[in-house]
C-alpha cells in the first residue's frame, strides 16, 4: 500500500483508536474516517504523512488536544475535526499553518483564545461554534478568566473565608462525584456487551451482527446437552446453523475448546457437517455450520411419515453415515471419537445425503490405537456400549456399537429404548426378534442377516 493516495473509511461502524500504521503511508494525501465511533487521541505520528492535504476526522469520539506536530503538515488545506470531544487550547503553531484554507473545529470542548494569526482571521465563527470555553481575541472575559486563575496574594486574602468554604464544598462534591462515577462504571461494565471475535475457516458473506441477530427463541431448531442450535438466515439469502455452546464449553480462553476447534477446522469430507467458523467472546462460543434443510435422521425416522421411508433411502443414509464415521476414525490425525452417534446427530441435506454432526462431545486420541480415560459418562441412553458405561474407556469401537444401534433403528423403525417393554432394549430384543417384526417398508428389501 505504499502508493496509496486516498483512503476513505467514512460512515462505517469502526471503533477503537486510530491505527498509527496509517501514517506510515507516505504517499497518502486524503484521509477520511468521519462518522464512525473512533476514540482516543489523534496520534502525533500523523505528522509523518507530509503529503496530506485533506483530513476529515469529524463525527467521532476523539479526545485530548490537537497534537502540535500537526503543524508540520505543510501541504494541509482541509482540516475537519468537528463533532468530537477534543479539548485544550488551539496552539499557536496551528495558527501559523498558512496552507489551511478550510477549518472546522466546531462542537468540541476547546478552551482559551482562538489564535490571532492572519491565517486564522479568514475563518468565520462557524468554524469554532459549539465550544463554550473558547473565545476570540477581542473578548475581554478571556483575560478576566486568566486573571482569576492567577489572582494575586492580596486578592486571595480578601476571599480566604469564601475560598475555604468553596474548597470544602468542592471536596465533598468531588467525593460524591467519584462515588457516582465508580457506581456508573461498575454498572456499565456489567451491562456493556462483550466484544465478539469472528474466526472464519472459509470466505463468509455475513458479519457478526448478522449471526447475533438470529439468536432468538423462534429460530431454535434443536437443543442438546452441550448447546442450543439456531437457524440463521443471512442477508445474502443463505442459511447457516448456529450452535451456541453452554456450560463448560463456553469461554474463548478454554484450551480444550480451542484444541477442538483447530481439529474440526481441518475436517473436509462430504459426509461430515462442515464447520464454517466460530464467533466467541469471554463468555460464549458460537459454532457456525452449514445448514441441513431436511433435519436429522431421528426426525425423519420417527416423524409422521417415518413409516413411509423406503429401504433404498435407509440403506443410502446408512452407507453415507458410515463413510463419515470411517473418515473420523481412520483418516483424521489425531483420531476423532464422536462418542454420541445417534440418529439426531446424522443430518440430511436437500438431497437427503447424510452428514455426521455434533462434535460437542468429541475427544481426540493423540496416540493411534490407544484409549483415553474420561472422567464422566458421555453419550445418549440406548446407544452407549455396555463396556463403555462400566469402564469409561473410550475408543472407536464405542462409536461402532452406537452406529450398530442406529442401523437397527433404521431397519425396525423403532427407538432403541421404550418400545420393547421393561428392561429390554433394541439390542436384546433383536437377539430373538422374528424377521416379520421389521418395518413393512424394509421387509423383502434387505438380507435377513441384517437383523440377526
Automatic annotation (TrEMBL):
KW DNA repair (keyword) present: no
Compartments in which it is found: Cell membrane
Transmembrane segments: 164-183
Start and end residues of each Protein kinase domain: 215-452
GO CC entries: plasma membrane
Membrane topology of the entry: Single-pass type I membrane protein
UniProt protein name: non-specific serine/threonine protein kinase
The species this protein was found in: Rubroshorea leprosula
